[in-house]
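Usage

Read records sequentially. Each one opens with the input sequence:
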Amino acid sequence: MSAETEPFARQLLAEFPALRATLASIVAVSEPDKLREQVAQLSEAAAAPNLWDDPETAQRVTTALSAAQAELNRITELECRVDDAEALVELGLEADDVESLREAEAEIKAISQDLGELEIRTLLNGEFDKRDAVVTIRSGAGGVDAADWAEMLLRMYLRWAERNHYPTQVDDISYAEQAGIKSATFEVNAPFAYGHLSVEAGTHRLVRISPFNAQGKRQTSFAAVEVVPLIVESDEIEIPDSELKVDVFRSSGPGGQSVNTTDSAVRMTHLPTGIVVSMQNEKSQLQNRVAALRVLQSRLLAKRREEEAAQKKELAGDIKASWGDQMRSYVLHPYQLVKDLRTEHESGNVTAVLDGALDGFIEAGVKWRRLAP
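and closes with the structure output:
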């Protein structure tokens, strides 16, 4: 056996206890046995001959099945990869094969990276962290630049979901007159979507040379991001009809272009709180009403939880807000930098971040939230 092989192999073998410990913590949170049971139940439901008689239910079942199966596959594949990599190291040690050891080293690094991405799940143990997410983006101060910034944020989050293979559904968009959007609401339908995206809630600031300013001046603009967990039937948030005001109108696209010729879009106002939800994604007024009610219930649930948390803090004598008015800055001029003001996590590749490369910021946010007082 060469002088190089045995120390190299022993060094690689020493990494496996930590890998297996991390994997065990991920398995404990992900509960693969429950995932298998869920996959079996959803598979049975998806095989029903009359499933597509109700397209909305069918879509929900198939999406949930796809997400649960993908989650289960990620865990079982990692378990197999760890076993295979360890076997490859032992084989390389036995055969005095340095090339096999180098191949195993590369696989160990890849496994470590994949485990790191999944390890964040061990921190997502809040009551609603496993839920789908409902995200609303609203333009703030900054005029047309703010509306344009809100649309850039919408694209950023949709690209993030696409990169992670998470299904999304845009429920409503209100377009601004000159450019960009006044607001948009969309869903991310994936396990732990709320847990991940909840740390994105807050005010996002953009600094750049305004493309809408003829003098080429630097402009600062703001947009607000709201994230709530998607409501499920078991939450039982009941809203009496007397507390609702429902208006119907025609769906519209950019610049006021009509999308359809019927009053299918729905605007639902919860009178006691003033919360307003608009929905125009579905083709029928009934479907939009059901979807709007679901999002309204989600927001009321989030509001109730915020009030309970505020009451607990007041009773404990801690009235400091945990989120500032500005949680992240995106600077395009005079230098390039995205920096989270809570976690200090930053990136000089602004283009990549705006194209959905948010995992580093989200992971830092989840860890920061876990450690925050």
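Summary fields computed downstream for this record:
- The longest helix spans residues 55-95.
- The chain has two domains: 5-123, 133-371.
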